[in-house]
Specification:
The chain is built from 3 helices and no strands. The chain is mostly helical. The protein has one domain. α2 packs across α3.
Length: 91
Amino acid sequence: MNNILQELTDENIRLKHENDELKLKLEKYNNSRTNYYEKNKEVINEKAKQRLKRLAKENPDKIKEYARAAYLKQKEKKRLEKQEQPTNENI
């Protein structure tokens, strides 16, 4: 009985240590990605603009699809906000 308890305690400690290591790695990974985008925001935006210009030349219909999808998404978002507004005022 005592042996099983000791094994479970050791495993618990090992798993906690492993969990802490993984959390630290994940935190470093997320911070590095966030820092990259914060530092290179202008470069990323410029590349996106160039990609859209190239796409506009190659396939103008694709731009229309993107614009329509964005419009429908925005319209749906406004509709949902409008539905939520009256329920918030009643409370």
